Amino acid sequence: MSVSAVDLLVLQKDNTWELEEWIVPLSTALAGTTAEQAIWAPPGGGNTIWQTVSHINYYNERMLSRLKGVEPDARVETNEETFAGGTPDEAVWAEVLAETKRIQLELREAIASLSNEELEAPYANTNESVGREFSRWMLHDAYHAGQIVLIRRQQGSWRS
């Protein structure tokens, strides 16, 4: 049985979003978090869970737009601007989580629909291919899911 590059990217997407095998996926890292937990700042500084999710959503939405052939929304001036904070409002936090899930599922669908030729195409006016850029990008979500787990451990809200 042969495995295509698209199959591997979809597997990476599944592992970084919802399939818990050897890393904690983002959906698991976020499961059961409250708005209060999401705005809690770690001792000594650092981003909150909400800020981290805002950052993930910003960049994943840009990736999704490019896959759909749509010009992404205006780019922020600095990376720090992508870490938007939140409020202790459960309804707003639920909307943020729903948006995260929508983006993740649409990204998976878009990645699964790519052809080998599309994977080899240049990514957004860079010297990288779409496939190489997406392979690296999945690591971004995994990295931040790990940060979220660490924050939850610090606040005592992570599973034991």
Molecular structure report:
It is a single chain. The mean pLDDT is 92. The chain has 160 residues and is mostly helical. The radius of gyration is 16 Å and the shape is globular. The chain has one domain: Four Helix Bundle (Hemerythrin (Met), subunit A) (Up-down Bundle), CATH 1.20.120.
What is the CATH superfamily? dinb family like domain
Helical amount: 55-70%
Percentage beta strand: under 5%
Unreliable spans are: none
The shape is globular
Report the average pLDDT across residues: 92
According to CATH, what is the topology?
A: Four Helix Bundle (Hemerythrin (Met), subunit A)
Pairing-aware structural class of the strands and helices?
mainly alpha
CATH class division: Mainly Alpha
Q: Report the biggest beta sheet as strand number plus sense, adding barrel if it closes.
A: none
CATH architecture grouping: Up-down Bundle
Q: Which sequence of SSEs, written as H and E, runs from N to C?
A: HHHHHHH
What is the overall number of helices? 7
- Whole-Å distance between the termini? 39 Å
**Topology, number of strands:** 0
Number of domains: 1
Rg to the nearest angstrom?
A: 16 Å
